[in-house]
Every structure is written in structure tokens, then in C-alpha cells.
Design brief:
It is a single chain. The protein has about 180 residues and is an alpha+beta fold. The chain contains 5 helices and 10 strands, in the order ββββαααβββαβαββ. It is globular. The relative contact order is 0.16. GO terms for molecular function: acyltransferase activity, transferring groups other than amino-acyl groups; helicase activity. Keywords: ATP-binding, Helicase, Hydrolase, Nucleotide-binding. This is Protein export cytoplasm protein SecA ATPase RNA helicase (TC 3.A.5.1.1). Pfam families: Acetyltransf_3.
């Protein structure tokens, strides 16, 4: 089922003295379609997005590794995977809820062209409205302010930190562990 949630409408316009951010007017989560995988693979080629997320495979250009990873995600009964669809029906990103040590773990990826438009926020809102299990955790690099804002504004709180190796950055990064409880 595809449902649509509305966000605040505004548009991005550049003038000599200011820029106004364009917000998406609608977003929906839907099941992943085979053609979405081509879009997700294209999103993975964005070096800036890889660095921002700090998550990337060793070789993001290797389609075989990508297909293997997505086949595993889509066929894991304990993992929920949704396409974040923009108002034109295009795959703008993906939202994944897997399990780590039995606890739901939320992650998302939105193509850079959609950053700052409210699509990710609306997608997370829609997912959390339908997914009642708590707690839900997320891991976010300390310098990924946008993703942290999305989660913290939804009630996620920092419960710890961990250091992990980032293939995209070729270094150890610190990730905040955020958790949404039912309280």
C-alpha cells in the first residue's frame, strides 16, 4: 500500500541575496521494485553522499557486490526495506529496518538532489507511524548533522558512541548511537 504524507511546501529559489529551500510536497514509502535497484546503485556512485554517510562498500562501483547485498536485504524476513518515492514516483532513496542483536536498526539513504527538501523526514515519520516496535536504534556519524536532525526531531536520543571504520573515508569515524524508546 502506498500512502502519502504531506510536508510543508516551499521552493528553492536563488536570488542575489538569499536562497529559500524547496520542500517536497509529498512522499511515500513503497515496496522496492526491480528498477529501483538501478537508481539505488546510481545513488551509491555519489562520492559526497558516501563520505557524508561514512558507509560504503570497499568498491561502490562493483555492481555484483551491490546486487549481492540487496538480494540479502530483500530476502531477509527480519528486514523491512522500502523505497522512498518522490512526488513524481521516482526512487529518491531507501529506508531499511534490520535487526542488530534483536533490536530494530533504522537506516536510510536519500539521493543528494533531495537533501534538505523534507523527503527523508517524511519517510521516517511514515515508517515510524506504522512500525510500533520500540526501541528502535540508528547509527549516525557525528558529523552527519542532517541525519541526526531527522532522528532527534523524531524523539531519538543519543545513548552511546562507537568507533567504526569507514570505507568511504578510509579512516575510523565516530558514530552516535541513537535510540527511540516507547516512553
Amino acid at each position: 500500500m502506498i500512502s502519502t504524507r504531506r510536508t510543508r511546501p516551499c521552493r528553492r529559489t536563488a536570488t542575489a541575496d538569499r536562497t529559500v529551500t524547496e520542500r517536497s510536497t509529498a512522499v511515500s514509502l513503497r515496496d522496492v521494485r526491480p528498477e529501483d535497484l538501478d537508481e539505488f546503485f546510481a545513488h551509491q556512485q555519489d562520492d559526497e553522499a558516501n563520505v557524508m554517510s561514512a558507509f560504503a562498500p570497499r568498491n561502490p562501483k562493483d555492481r555484483g557486490v551491490f546486487d549481492y547485498h540487496w538480494d540479502h536485504l530483500l530476502n531477509d524476513e527480519k528486514t523491512q526495506v522500502k523505497t522512498i518515492q518522490d512526488e513524481q514516483g521516482r526512487a529518491a532513496g531507501a529506508l531499511v529496518c534490520s535487526r542488530e542483536d534483536g533490536i530494530p536498526e533504522l537506516s536510510f539513504w536519500t539521493a543528494r538532489e533531495y537533501w534538505g527538501r523534507g523527503l527523508t523526514t517524511a519517510a521516517v515519520d511514515e515508517f515510524l507511524a506504522d512500525f510500533a516496535e520500540r526501541p528502535v536504534r540508528a547509527h549516525v556519524p557525528t558529523d552527519n548533522v542532517g541525519s541526526q536532525k531527522v532522528l532527534k526531531r523524531r524523539g531519538f536520543e543519543v545513548v552511546g558512541q562507537e568507533k567504526v571504520f569507514s570505507n568511504a573515508r578510509a579512516e575510523i569515524v565516530t558514530e552516535e548511537i541513537l535510540e527511540l524508546t516507547g516512553e
